[in-house]
């Protein structure tokens, strides 16, 4: 069930970007925002199709996935309560070759693309904040490429689990081996071995599709520098 947000005076949101906006910027957005649930695997953006809505995620995680002509797929980035979908829209385009879908269920405030563009056109401060997020997201994507190209699977898995942990409540996440393999672009047996290795180092516990973070500092160390730079840039530019 969806609900409309209309009064910027009493507006509140767990989305980090929206929580930082001043009253005048919120007034441009709130009449057009609708609070909706996000269901697992729900499509947010389809490859090469018009982006009709932009989502300010309040809970859950949205994955940005790249697909090859040979139908191979890999996650390029992810967005949680710290951000917003519609990267292409912010940059002035109307579509993307990538797919965006809900990885973990939650909720979001949704706005039609046309209304979002109008708000950006009327506010330099809103545009600046959105561009800061785009910049940080691009850094995240670059470090995903770094991890995929230079890190071992255990290091990549550690980084990915940390990024999921950053965007979820609590220390547990429902994750199948098949789904992790899709996100990391590796084979399922490799994920199984990597999970066992992390569990053997007492960094996680994995049982029946649930992964629990036990030693976050250990995961950060294992990630070998592939985790932390985008997060640091977020704190520097956004807070």
UniProtKB/TrEMBL annotation:
SUPFAM superfamilies xref list: cAMP-binding domain-like, Winged helix' DNA-binding domain
Whether DNA-binding counts among this entry's keywords is yes
Q: Does the keyword 4Fe-4S apply?
A: no
Gene Ontology molecular function terms on file: DNA binding; DNA-binding transcription factor activity
Q: Which InterPro entries match?
A: cNMP-bd_dom, cNMP-bd_dom_sf, Env_Response_Regulators, HTH_CRP, RmlC-like_jellyroll, WH-like_DNA-bd_sf, WH_DNA-bd_sf
This protein's GO cellular component annotations are:
cytosol
Q: Which domain of life is it from?
A: Bacteria
Q: Which UniProt keywords apply?
A: DNA-binding, Transcription, Transcription regulation
The residues forming a coiled coil are none
Domain (HTH crp-type) ranges = 155-221
Q: What is this protein called?
A: HTH crp-type domain-containing protein
Query: Which species is this UniProt entry from?
Result: Terricaulis silvestris
Native organism taxonomy: Bacteria, Pseudomonadati, Pseudomonadota, Alphaproteobacteria, Caulobacterales
């Amino acid at each position: 069930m969806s609900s409309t947000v209309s009064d910027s005076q009493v507006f509140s949101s767990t989305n980090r970007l929206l929580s930082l906006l001043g009253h005048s910027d919120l007034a441009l957005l709130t009449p057009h925002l609708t609070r909706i649930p996000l269901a697992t695997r729900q499509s947010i953006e389809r490859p090469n199709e018009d982006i009709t809505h932009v989502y300010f995620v309040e809970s859950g995680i949205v994955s940005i996935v790249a697909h090859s002509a040979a139908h191979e797929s890999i996650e390029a980035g992810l967005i949680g309560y710290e951000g917003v979908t519609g990267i292409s829209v912010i940059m002035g385009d109307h579509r993307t070759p990538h797919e965006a879908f809900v990885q973990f269920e939650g909720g979001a405030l949704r706005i039609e693309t046309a209304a979002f563009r109008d708000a950006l056109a009327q506010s330099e401060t809103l545009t600046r904040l959105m561009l800061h997020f785009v910049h940080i997201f691009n850094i995240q994507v670059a470090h995903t490429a770094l991890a995929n190209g230079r890190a071992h699977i255990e290091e990549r898995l550690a980084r990915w689990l940390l990024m999921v942990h950053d965007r979820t409540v609590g220390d547990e996440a429902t994750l199948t081996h098949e789904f992790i393999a899709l996100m990391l672009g590796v084979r399922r047996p490799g994920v199984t071995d990597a999970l066992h290795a992390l569990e053997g180092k007492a960094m996680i516990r994995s049982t029946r599709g649930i992964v629990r973070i036990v030693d976050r500092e250990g995961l950060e160390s294992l990630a070998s520098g592939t985790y932390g730079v985008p997060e640091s840039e977020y704190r520097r530019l956004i807070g």
